[in-house]
Amino acid sequence: MKNVDLKELLNPLKILPHFIERNSQNKNILGPVAVEFHWCTTCNYNCVHCSYAQRRKNFKVLSQEVVEQTVKDLINLGVKAVYFSGGGEPTTYKNWDKYAKKFLDNGIETALITNSVPIQDKDLNLLKKFNYIAVSVYSTNEDEYKKITGADNFDRQFALPKILQSKNENVIVGARCVINSINYNTIISNYKKAIEEGFDYIIFIPAVDYEQKKIDLSDDIKLMVQELINQNAGDIDPKKTNLLGLGEKGIQHYKHHNGDKFKDYKCCSCAEIRANAFINYDGNVYLCQPLIGQEEFSIGNINEQPFSKIWNSERHNSVIQKLNERFVTGHCIDCRSISHNIKIYEYLKSKELPNCPNDSFV
Hints:
The chain has helices spanning 6-9, 15-23, 53-56, 64-76, 96-105, 124-127, 142-149, 160-165, 187-196, 219-231, 243-248, 269-272, 307-310, 314-328, 337-350; strands at 34-37, 81-84, 109-114, 132-136, 172-179, 201-206, 276-279, 285-286. By secondary structure, it is α/β, with parallel strands linked by helices. It has an eight-stranded mixed sheet with strand order 6-5-4-3-2-1-7-8, covered by helices on one side. It is globular and about 50 Å long.
């Protein structure tokens, strides 16, 4: 197993080198630092906690032609990192491996968030070139697993690290487990199983109710999860899991904030420096993950215009202004950029640069 420290992988200070590099530049010529590609709604699972479940019912998939053009645009814009992620299962998309190889061949770091079931032996040599792979795991209890996913691949959810270990020692293989109303009792056994099977870390994410389907955890379940963490705190390695941090934040994955703290700052710096783009399977491009699906926050649609025309457009700048207003008034929730903005704000006040990890996956 590699010497991976989860606290460094999740460290919000990773935004500072990008902020310092970009803040003094003309923002309207900057490409995104990192892009998250949600190119299909197809999935081999039907998870009860899925934050994309309603959107998946649209059965939308980006065309090969549109993806081909977008890949070219992102390369030309100098994107540093690309995630292949949700909406559906990204490895069910036709030619996903071809596009991943194209990014890699152009020196762009790549990452994959997957349930790993569709991955084939022919994919392993490609995957060993990735920066990291995050595998969704669900429960060490087979009945819970089936209730959550509606699938019969219980034995495969923890299998990928040992398959890849003989192929490569550089790619980081982590696990992600969404805590829901079915599996909350097995979080400790899930943690232990993931480490035993060779995962470099396991992140636990309380179910996030992006679609207002009431899939988030009840207060009673949060209390029980907190008690489980407290009872097992001595056996939990903070370098391998975020469980202790979840407990400290009241069983929340993302930091919340009071908008009053940022009124003198007046913007979301992550949006201002063009840190992220999220490309959805309906073609809409967003700047924030929690707002995917809310078309008023889309900066354009790649089915109608190439990404190169959408990015840094008038519409793009108008959406940034909307995001700034949300941020400074405290309306941003469930977003990793909150922690990043806090570190930027602290840096601007102190002008002291702490030791920051070198990471393009912001």
